Amino acid sequence: MTWRLLVLGGACLLLMGVRGQCKEQRNRRTVSFHQTQQDGDQRQVLSRPERDTTASPRPTFTACKLPLTTLEHQVLDQNTHEVILVLSTISAPLHSFFEGGSSRLYRSADYGKSFHDISHLINNTFIRKEFGLLAGPGNSQQVILTADTPVLDNTGGVIFTSTDAGVSFKSVQLPFHPAQPITFHFLNPEYLVVISIDGGLWLSLDFGTVWKKVHEGTQSFTWGSGITLFFSFSPKGTVEADRRGELFLKRTEDLGKTFTTVAHSIFSFGYVGGFLFTSVIETLGAPRVIYVSSDQGEHFNKAQLPSASTEQFYSVLDGDEDMIFMHVDNPGEESYFGTVYTSDDRGILYSKSLERHLFGGEGKSDFTNVTSMRGVYLTNILEEDGRIRTVISFNRGGEWTLLNKPQNVECGEDSRNDCNLHIHGEHSRYNGITPMLPLSDPTAVGLVIAHGSLGDSISSTRPDVYVSEDGGYKWRGSLRGPHHYSILDAGGLVVAVEAHPMDGQINTIKFSTDEGQCWKVYNFTEQPIFFAGLTSEPGTKTMNISVWGYRPEDDHQPMWVVVTIDFQSLLTRECGNQDYVQWLAHATEGGDLATEGCVLGYKETFRRLRKLSVCRNGRDYVVSRQKSPCPCTREDYLCDYGYYRHENSSECMRQLDTADHALEVCLNGEEEELRTLGYRKVPSDKCEGGFTPLRIKETVNRHCGNSSQPPTASPYSETPREKMLLIVVCVGSGIVILVAVAAAVYTVRRMGYGNRAPTYRFSVLQLRDDNCSIAADPESVASSNGTSVFQVDSDDDLIE
């Protein structure tokens, strides 16, 4: 396989693989409908005050360390390459380096072992910091660089396009100035779409050579199914239209030749898992409600969810074609929490899944899809006494429980009677407690790596690294203190670098061949560096890892260094049949043999690597699994609409406010009456026979609502001046890593790049794609979910 890296002025890196590909994941897919206010040109977030987490004495455990043999050290030394990147010598003021971009472009075709300056290919042009580098999701060889062009002095911007992974670039003069990153179509990277600074919607069908303006007054857009494109716009062209719910939603199915208006008077919209969501006010003065379409906007139905007042919001936490996780904020400006609901396969009927779900005032949710095990989700709840605690579900939100105490860790004296593991997520990362989010990957079956605290709740003290090898059932303490970590060789190799050491510099990397049970330490450089980030080839099948950082020079300029370590020469033996065992997922000790390992209606037996086998899975490794059906039990069912699961019980109870009347739902203009015993099967559950409760849906011959258009308020509605924010986290299948390495002037400042993935500034719609690399810290370069990232931005911009 051929790999290439592009480095922009020592500040940006593009690692590209011709055939490598990230697995498409649906984790961390989030759509948020928020209320904000804007005064003049200064945007201000209506965020709630930060809540302090409690501090408690740290539990004790000893990390397992194995000595590195002399031979192993020699082999790694021979396969470790340090490269120094020279900063731009073109005269430019200091602030232009931080705010404008860079004029040096470097390229590597050997995993970062050597670099070549190719700045002349882009005429030494300064590239934008905000969204300067983009890579095609379906073709790693397609790259777009956006020049930093002054708006007042030019009629349009400039981009540089490459179809050969940076071997050559073509300069394109744009007839507009882009207001956000250019967006690729997810299947055909020749199709590009972007919004200009004057609200124009521009489309290119030939990878940016020719552009056509297809609409004006555009506020936001998103690709739907196939080549369908949805976008909202204001016919009056007013910037306050989205705050008053006066936007129109249009659809084009022929790339801008014809248009169809599918909704009007909306606040915002989103497209997740095949479902099109709109947020509207049905009548003047009424709270907002959600309408859902599963047929690309032909018909809308009202989601059976609590309505949201002006200080509340909705957020789609995760979703696919079978089910949606929806967070509904609790009333009150300082509630900090809400309720998680799960939908049916139509996205219309919702059941209560989890109460008091934490959603911080900074717009952070800890909701995490554990992609290494089917049906597993992690998140945090806010107890009435203010404690933040972690809960886990092994059946897609059917039931939630606290995490078990790690096997090798003892609790402190003050929490022996109430001791569980609690996982740090977005809330903790945003507040600087932890540098990384939980990490998992479908190719590393059952493996989960996360920062955690032990006790009765999450602690604000330095977290430790904990590892689970069975998808979250059992945990063990793995590393003391916070670390940056990465999964390599489909879980056969895990690497970690200490975060925030005492002197701020690092020179060692830790690696484990037994899923984090024991670690070896390798000193990769004699001159320590200030750490900026970890990057690896997309996916988890690589055995190369690059450590990025800088050393301050006498002139206070950073000397950028990338150290690439090739572990393939250390683990030379390919794994054979004797190195693998059969493993039943979701199996627990002492369970019923008939239902042991049954989740969502079937069992899965995997072929996975033995702990004591020191070998490599290799690039041809494919996850092997066998499925077998299970009899239905109550665990295969969610509580139906109007019902809830009683605490510490699998039985569904009817809600008091629905106890005396039939459950009626308006679907496609006809009223549907639902008769149920309180249970509905979890979407995608494949169980057979067993527990089968009655559930009958009958269409009543009564017209209701409007099946083709959500009911809307008058266009001259005098609703408060507020704004909806729609955040969409899309999981991409791209095969490119973009890493912004934090450039720094030693005595002045360090340039910060957020480790969240691309922020598409759409006014009310922002898209984020998680990336294939590993984050350094909240101001460094990449996230941890194994998918592509295009450009990073500050977390402060997630809520406008």
The amount of beta strand, in percent, is 35-45%
User: Could you estimate the helical fraction of the residues in percent?
Assistant: under 10%
**Structural class, from helix and strand content?**
mainly beta
How far is the N terminus from the C terminus? 42 Å
Can you give the mean pLDDT? Answer: 76
Count of runs of 4 or more consecutive helical residues = 4
Low-pLDDT stretches are: 1-55, 87-102, 713-800
DSSP E strands, number = 58
Biggest sheet layout: 8 strands, mixed
Q: Whole-number radius of gyration?
A: 26 Å
Tell me, what's the shape? Answer: globular
Keywords: Glycoprotein, Membrane, Repeat, Signal, Transmembrane, Transmembrane helix
Transmembrane segments: 724-746
Signal peptide: 1-20
Domain VPS10: 94-709
